[in-house]
Design a protein that fits this description.
The complex is a heterodimer of chains A (322) and B (261). Chain A is of the alpha/beta class and 322 residues long. Helices cover 34% and strands 31% of the residues of chain A. Chain A starts with a strand and ends with a helix. The chains are: A alpha/beta (322), B mainly alpha (261). At the A-B interface, helix 2 and helix 3 of A face helix 1, helix 5 and helix 11 of B.
Chain lengths: 322, 261
């Protein structure tokens, strides 16, 4: 039996346009998502904002009902067996909210330990273990309002683990955390996988997914665009190269001209403070540096470099194919 | 065992979590001192207009003082979770909802009782109403029932918080209705017939009447029918509140109403 199984999951949201004009708008957030996560796997769900990652997770953790399709967690249907699913899963999301700020970390954990029916005799020890695991031992009596975002994030994870769930859903857990905090968080997630937990992780950070995930699904506009190991996904753009061109004031029309060049697979523009960096994904046999520079026009050009594709390039190419 | 712990320990922790901001600097002026002004206002209006007794206004307004903390606090038990974005986390726990939400109601009843008893005691001293010492125990029981029925109505208000964000709007309206309709300042006999019929189904009406009779020297036994009706309303509101909570929690999975912050 798989840990998580989603079959053609769909979810749409309806909203009214205004109080007076009652026109109904329907948005399809998830449009037929299917995947299987085996026990003990770390499965990454990558996609841009609004791609449907969080909605997918909310259906799997029983907070939302699918509009159609089905999903099972450890064999239990997320729509029909909600309480059984809830007993077996943990959920943590990124950001500052989702904690009782005026309580200490210990009281936040105590409260959820009661809600997850952690036996009173083992509760204290369990909370102690988790505080140790997430590196908050010694700070547990402080109010959460004084915690950094990284500390809050680790507390989120401790809370999700209180009842020792078999499956863990982590929705952008490292968002907004400094590099050191993010590294510690990745180490914690890796340690949990080492203990045999099944983890579904959503993230925007490609290196994080590359480092942690056994398999990845790229989701865009509510659909799975590609699925496989990080190596599989990278191989999609392997046989290609990426040309990086730093420009100062490049025009949109020039970027479109570059896109139209034979041998160019995709072009993304990374805006920096003073400059714009074009990432031009191209066939390996194509020698396009001169052509690209020609299309950019008269704007000032800085560094030009060619490199092997990364998971991020694969992701950008997949998202760009939509 | 788990349900009992969720009721008591969970109820107390969640009350601290949601109302820790209510420190003495806020609590005393807002919940203890401000209701005294309402008592003084109506007592002086009554004296100026030469209608009813000081005791009439003292008891009515002191009991009505419980309505504000009970209604607003119960509404906040859901609306506050929505604000801190803990509502989704709460609802993805397997905890039974009955002890979860009743546990949140228990401290609210206790707080309403404290606010109301303070108003009765200090307000009585301020306006010179002398309630005999042997009346205080039965009055405390009546105030507890009034707080429970207001909290029950607050639970219904809280349940609406699963559907909409603005429970405080409902609380304001309900407090206003209770002030006008329940015999707090306007004798029931002076109300239009239809409003009198409405008042029968609202918290406070029977408790206020029972408290006035007790203060006038009636025995506890003689007001038992009134207390029974107040307790029945409290139980009814709580049951309806829990049913609505269950229904709205289910529908929130379908309508995504929890998504609105």
């Amino acid at each position: 039996m798989s840990a998580v199984e989603a079959i053609d999951l769909r979810r749409s949201f309806s909203s009214r346009t205004s109080v007076l004009r009652r026109a109904k708008e329907t948005v399809e957030a998830v449009r037929g998502v299917s995947f299987v996560i085996e026990r003990g796997e770390i499965f990454g769900l990558l996609g841009p904002n609004g791609a449907g990652k969080t909605t997918t997770i909310k259906m799997l953790i029983t907070l939302l009902l699918p509009s159609s399709g089905s999903a099972k967690v450890l064999g239990y249907d997320v729509a029909r067996d909600a309480v059984k699913v809830r007993r077996r899963i943990g959920y943590a999301f990124g950001g500052d909210r989702g904690l009782y700020d005026r309580l200490s970390a210990q009281d936040n954990l105590r409260y959820f330990a009661e809600l997850y029916a952690v036996p009173p005799r083992t509760q204290r020890a369990r909370i102690g273990e988790l505080l140790e695991l997430v590196g908050l031992r010694g700070r547990e009596k402080e109010r959460v309002e004084g915690y950094s975002r990284g500390m809050r994030q680790r507390l989120h994870i401790a809370r999700a683990l209180l009842h020792d769930p078999a499956v863990l859903f982590l929705d952008e857990p490292s968002i907004g955390i400094d590099p050191v905090g993010a590294r510690e968080l990745r180490a914690t997630v890796a340690a949990l996988a080492g203990q045999g937990k099944t983890i579904l992780l959503t993230t925007h950070y490609m290196f994080e997914a590359d480092e942690l995930c056994d398999r990845i699904a790229v989701i865009g506009s509510g659909r799975i665009l590609a699925e496989g190991t990080p190596a599989d996904l990278k191989s999609r753009v392997r046989g290609g190269r990426v040309l990086e061109v730093e420009t100062f004031g490049v025009l949109d029309e020039s970027v479109d001209d570059v896109r139209r060049l034979d041998g160019v697979r995709s072009v993304t523009v990374e805006a920096r403070t003073q400059s714009q960096v074009l990432h031009v994904s191209m066939d390996s046999e194509a020698e396009l540096t001169a052509a690209v520079l020609g299309r950019i026009g008269d704007v000032r050009v800085g560094r030009v470099a060619s490199r092997e594709p990364t998971l991020e390039d694969a992701y950008v190419e997949l998202i760009g194919e939509r | 065992m788990s349900a009992i712990r969720i009721f008591w320990i969970g109820g107390l922790i969640s009350f601290r979590a949601l109302f820790h901001w209510l420190n003495p600097w806020i609590y005393v002026p807002t919940l203890l001192v401000a209701p005294l002004f309402q008592i003084l206002l109506f007592v002086y209006v009554g004296r100026a207009a030469r209608i009813e007794s000081d005791s009439f206004f003292l008891i009515g307004n002191a009991l009505q003082g419980a309505a504000v903390p009970c209604l607003f606090a119960m509404g906040h038990t859901i609306a506050g979770e929505r604000f801190t974005q803990t509502l989704g986390l709460l609802l993805t726990t397997p905890a039974s909802r009955v002890p979860l939400f009743l546990g949140r109601a228990a401290p609210v009843v206790a707080n309403g009782w404290i606010v109301s008893m303070f108003g009765l005691g200090v307000g009585g001293v301020l306006v010179g109403v002398d309630i005999p010492p042997d009346r205080w125990v039965p009055l405390a029981l009546v105030v507890a029932l009034a707080s429970a029925s207001c909290t029950g109505l607050g639970l219904i208000n809280a349940a609406l918080g699963l559907k909409v964000r603005q429970t405080a709007t409902f609380s304001n309206i309900i407090v206003g209705i209770l002030l006008v309709v329940c015999g707090v300042n306007v004798p029931l006999a002076a109300l239009p017939t239809w409003l009198r019929a409405v008042s029968e189904w609202l918290p406070l009406t029977h408790a206020v009447e029972a408290a006035r009779l007790l203060a006038d020297g009636d025995t506890l036994r003689s007001v038992v029918p009134l207390l029974g009706r107040e307790a029945g309303l409290a139980a009814g509101f709580i049951v309806v509140g829990l049913v609505i909570l269950r229904a709205f929690e289910r529908s929130s999975r379908r309508t995504a109403s929890l998504e609105r912050q």
